[in-house]
Amino acid sequence: MRRSRVCLLTLLTERPATIITIAFVLAAASGCNLEPAGPGVVNPAAASLGIVTQPGDAASGVPLGVPPAVEVLDADGNRLVTDQETVVTAVVGSGQGSLDGSVSVQVGDGLATFSDLAVVGIAGDWSLEFQAGTLPAVVSASFRLRAGPVSLSQSTVSVSRGSIAPGETAQLTLRVRDAQGNQQESGGLTVAFGTSGGTSQGTMSAVVDNDDGTYGASFTGTAEGTATSIVATINGEAVTSGAPTIQVASGAPPPPPPPPAQSVLVAEGFEDTDFGGRGWYDIINPQVTAAEAAVGSSSLVMRFGEGAQFVDGTVGRHLFEETDVVVLSYWVKYSGNWVGSQVGSHPHEFYFLTNLDDAFVGPAGAVLEVLVEQNHNGVDGMVPFVGIRGRRMWASAMFTDAAGARYKGDWHFIEAEIRMNSGVGVADGEVRYWMDGELLVDERDVVIRANAGEEGMRFNQLLIAPFIGVGSPVDQTMWIDELTVATERGGG
What DSSP letter does each residue of 270-304 carry, written as one string? Predict the structure, then answer.
């Protein structure tokens, strides 16, 4: 490996008192050239790094509005202004995603400014870490990443009912998202809804801008016919993620009744795709199949394409009555080649969120997110676990690759119970997890309400959003069936 050093060229200008010193990196044994220093190059006099300008004004996929600047310090804590060779590299400190642009910058006069650095990933709280060879790394202050530019392929249209009778009305919703699936947080776009194909007729109301990245309208049936697609445009360009259908037909089923007044808060059998009609929202092109079913005639399909961070479609979110206790139960089956993420985090599968956040909060930015998922234990395979505030409660047994009692390619009945602790900071919260009736997690000392202001925190939302931050290693699929959220354990 060639050792880099600095070659100084001093020029005298017409002003006698002015000297311009130009530093070049010497990357060869002799002679100066203009090759930049490589990552890990550090000036021998450098002792530490310091952040001069904290990163900020962050939108996913767009260069930071406030680009970070990092200085190289000498042993006395002063900027090493003679340093023209140290290379500083930015990496993700916290957050789900990656960095784009110039992640490695060679200092000039001891200062490195990351002028085109962009953060690409899931909206929420992020930080950056800056490294330079063997110098101690420094971590930036936390900053919030918001949604980036509008993506026509990620923005989604949904309808509250797939079939209505003449004179009845269905609600239409457009959720505007960026390329990473983050929902926009404000309005101001020109949105239009329309129909395409089919012979069902109806009238469309004016579009309502909810100023939160969602736009709504209503469709009232006027004449029966075949199903027609609901389409939308954003600033005159067509949304391409897929168009739900609606049919105007006499004898259309009425809206679903409210959930029964008992311990069951959410019940979903995945028998059809009218999820909006059953209280789901933030829906992204869910898919059901009759080819696989644990109960009834079909199940929810969630497929990761190779390299994909997100599955092809999900039912999204469901609000429920606020409660201190949730019991999630469902049937699950994984494809024979299922390998998850093959890293010590992800795939995320199910999230519980609370009444301290709004209905569309991103999990990474939530006051509390409870994760119920199958994750790699870092040693020998994929193990179910429940995660709360950084505490990872692993099951005592794992899904297996080979045929047997826990073979991943068979249907299994999962139950996860989470009970809030009795008061802020009191370690008496409870977490239990069963697979096929066998208790695999039993923790009785969990702190869920942990901070001031969380006295009234209660569960009120389920989010189904499978996610692999590093991208799926293979094309793999999971199926979910007969899901319930309740306040007490039932059976399967």
Answer: -SSS--GGGTEES-B--EEESS--SSSS-EEEEEE
Helix/strand/coil for 364: helix
Asked if residues 447 and 393 have their Cβ atoms less than 8 Å apart, the reply is no
Structural contact between residues 213 and 184, judged by C-beta atoms closer than 8 angstroms: yes
Instruction: Find the distance separating the first CA and the last CA of the chain, reported in whole Å.
Output: 63
Torsional sign, CA 57, 152, 290, 164 = positive
Q: What Rg value do the Cα atoms of the chain yield, rounded?
A: 27
Is residue 315 helix, strand or coil? coil
**Sign (positive or negative) of CA dihedral 255, 160, 211, 371:** positive
Provide the token pair at 83: 């340093």
Tokens of 443: 């923790």
Give the CA dihedral 329, 335, 338, 341, nearest 10 degrees: -60
The pLDDT tens digits for 160-195 are 777 899 999 988 989 898 988 788 889 999 999 999
Distance CA(99)–CA(109), nearest Å, equals 25
CB neighbours (10 Å) of residue 8? 12
What pTM was estimated for this model as a whole?
0.51
465 neighbors 362 (Cβ within 8 angstroms): no
C-alpha 288/C-alpha 266 separation (Å) is 18
